[in-house]
Every structure is written in structure tokens, then in C-alpha cells.
Amino acid sequence: MSTTAPPLPHQGRRLLQVGMGLLLFTCFQGFVIPYFEVPLLGLSVHRLSALEGVMLLAVGSFWPRLHLGATASWTAFWLLMYSALAIIASYVMAGAWGAGDTMIRLAAQSGHGGNLQETAIKLVAYSSAPTGIIAFALIVWGLRESASPRTIPCSTAYRASRLL
């Protein structure tokens, strides 16, 4: 990969791969929902993983068209990945521990863990919000129109047919 060109196509492909990986995770995770300490948290993990997978597929599909430099695309890419995976991790932690009622009240129901568990769930979940917001702000910025339109190479035959 060239050091002068932004790594957008490579990152877009990686987002598609991770999105598909999350959908595959969702398929298998559905089988273990009844074994979670709080099955409603297991269902929440299932739904959230599917949502994040589809979101990464959507973003990955237009990622190479963003108008971002190498540093901005790198920052947006890793913050988006962290945000998506961190919120899933916090739900998995809550489901595995049967905890999380201080953070995820509706899904955790009465599942309450120790102070360390509840704090860990909060830290991971809360850390996903600012990273996601920054990533989405950079993505919105990257969707702006470029100052100079990209030229699409055309064959001579195509150009000639356009003149007729």
C-alpha cells in the first residue's frame, strides 16, 4: 500500500469483513441466548451484534468514496471499530456476569453484579459513545463534495460514442 494515498479501499474492505464477522457471530450467539444469566441480555447482544454488523456493512460499502486524508481516515476507522465492538463487549460482559442493571436497566432486569463488574460494564459502554460520535462526525465530513471532481478515465470509443 502506498504511503501517499489514503488507505480508504483497504479500510472499506476491512469494515465489510468485520461486519460479516459480526453477522456470523450473531448467528452462533443466538444458540446460547438461553444460557446467559439473564436471557434478555443475551437477546440484546444478539440484536446489537446484528445492528452493528449491518451498520459496518453499510459504512464499508461507501468508505472508499470518503474524502478523507490518511490520518482522518485512520482515526475514523479505528474509532468506529472500537465504538461498535466496545458496546457489544459491554453487553456480553453484563450477560455473562448476570449484571448490568445500573447501566442496562431494561435488558438486565434485576441482574446486579459486584461494584467492580458494574463499573467495568459502565466504563466499556460509556467509552463507546464519544468514540462513535467522533467517528461519525469524521464520516459526515468525509461525505462532503471534494473541491476538485474526480475524473473518470474513458476509452476513446466511449468518448466518440458520446459525440454522436
What are the main properties of this structure?
164 residues, single chain, mainly alpha, elongated, 6 helices, 70% helix
What does the model show?
With 164 residues, the protein is mostly helical. It has one domain. Helix content is 70%, strand content 0%. It contains 6 helices and no strands. The longest helix has 28 residues, at 70-97.
> What is the CA–CA distance across the termini?
41 Å
| Radius of gyration, CA atoms, in whole angstroms | 21 Å
**Annotation, overall tally of beta strands:** 0
Elements, N to C (H/E): HHHHHH
Q: Outline, from the CA principal axes?
A: elongated
Output the number of helix runs. Answer: 6
Largest sheet: none
> Into which percentage range does the β-strand content fall?
under 5%
Overall pLDDT metric: 84
| Total number of domains | 1
What is the strand and helix layout of this fold?
Layout: H1 8-29, H2 39-62, H3 70-97, H4 105-108, H5 115-142, H6 156-163
Q: How do you describe this structure in short?
A:
Helices cover 70% and strands 0% of the residues. The protein has 164 residues and is mostly helical. Helix 1 packs antiparallel against helix 2 (39-62) and helix 2 runs antiparallel to helix 3.
